[in-house]
Write a structure and sequence with these properties.
Blueprint lengths: L2 H17 L21 H20 L1 H25 L7 H4 L7 H25 L6
Length: about 140
């Protein structure tokens, strides 16, 4: 597995995440994907822009991939951590729009797990797994 393979995987995963609202049967009556994620057009655009960033990095170079993994991973991991603490993230401006939200911690875990997992693995890959060897 190379950084390019990982970036292509992220591009695919993020394209799917951005498309969840448009696949019949995956959203409930309140528009929540899988009954958990309240995704709107801003979330979709964020996911699609991130997918484009990942795909472009995969096409450009190893260094572009490492930059994507480090940058994307740091942003998404921090967004997921803020979501765990407050119920709102910053990437979709939720913390500014909705502020701190009172919700069960178990729900916060489920709602933020994708950003924590995607961000955490990208940080691990970018900073540890694929770091350049020093001579």
């Amino acid at each position: 597995m190379t950084p390019r393979h990982v970036c292509l995987g992220y591009a695919l995963a993020l394209l799917i995440a951005g498309s969840l609202n448009y696949i019949p049967g995956l959203t409930d009556a309140q528009g929540r994907a899988f009954g958990i994620f309240a995704l709107d057009i801003y979330d979709d655009m964020l996911h699609w822009a991130s997918a484009l960033w990942a795909a472009m990095a995969a096409l450009l170079s190893r260094q572009a991939c490492l930059t994507f993994l480090k940058g994307f991973g740091s942003l998404y991991l921090a967004d997921g951590a803020l979501g765990l603490m407050t119920g709102s993230g910053f990437l979709d401006l939720g913390i500014l729009i909705h502020g701190v939200q009172a919700m069960p911690f178990g729900f916060k875990i489920l709602a933020n797990l994708p950003h924590l997992a995607l961000g955490g693995f990208a940080v691990l890959a970018g900073f540890v797994l694929f770091r350049r060897e020093t001579a």
